[in-house]
Amino acid sequence: MGTITATRLSWSVKGHRLLDSIDMAARDGRTVGLLGPNGSGKSTLLRLLAGLRRPDAGTVHYDDTGLHELHRRVLARRLAVVEQDVSAHHHVTVRQVVELGRTPFRGRFDSLTEHDRRIVDAALERTDLTGKQQRSWSTLSGGEKQRTQLARALAQEPREILLDEPTNHLDIRHQLELLDLLTTLDVTCVVALHDLNLAARYCDHVVVLDHGQVAAAGTPEAVLAPDLIRSVYGVDVLVDREHTTGALRITYLAATATRPVRLSTQATSTCAPTG
Ligand SMILES: Nc1ncnc2c1ncn2[C@@H]1O[C@H](COP(=O)(O)OP(=O)(O)OP(=O)(O)O)[C@@H](O)[C@H]1O
């Protein structure tokens, strides 16, 4: 389990600032939820955290080491990334996709060891894919593809994992199983989510993005308040606790009559980094 820290991270395209001075941290096995409306910058931030894009300004650290000082192979051994809608694998089976998770641990021409095979078996089992391991990737449903990507990530035995809307396409049972699994693994996790109730239930901390800025950050209880949700999402909600479990519950009432406005920089500057 490691710590991922982003400090004053910014990224622009053609003069448009898409991420603006983001501070956040995910520490020691915690699950941090990235929330925010469509286009608020969640996927972009995950790509910067993964080193798939270079920031214009600011830094990303894995523990005490700057991301770009980490050798690619070292990073590949510790960090797993589950992106949205991966369509790259065509003529391969589910098992072969999951075996890719062992690539950073093998020499170029080495075959899988018994140890690798056991890890792959366990990853298939944990994602409910054992019975589908010989299926061709191209024949899978959206949810099965999503679970295969998660299994590949698990086969990496990562210290940190970044996931972009991993519950997309999943039925309710698999959504709950995926998040149960993520939160019980000894892995530091940053996960972009749209479902605020799932975020409230599974995340230790949430970071809410709005127009590329941090609108709020902290525990779900502290952050997911009606005013914040109205100003960021433009939706009126009721927030209470479910009486049998005591879990935070967000009930969506209605979209507000006016579209949400960009939060002031003053609101942003009041947000402390999380961890
Ligand atoms: N390479 C790019 N060139 C131009 N604009 C981009 C690029 N990448 C992202 N954007 C824009 O940046 C904004 C943030 O996109 P991003 O995909 O990070 O949002 P998101 O919060 O993940 O959205 P969603 O919830 O819809 O997945 C969007 O307006 C998007 O169109």
Automatic annotation (TrEMBL):
Keyword Cell inner membrane found: no
Xref: SUPFAM superfamilies: P-loop containing nucleoside triphosphate hydrolases
Signal peptide: none
PROSITE patterns: ABC_TRANSPORTER_2
A UniProt-annotated Pfam family: ABC_tran
Domain ABC transporter stretches: 4-236
Alphabetized UniProt keyword annotations: ATP-binding, Nucleotide-binding, Translocase, Transport
Name under which the protein is recorded: Histidinol phosphatase
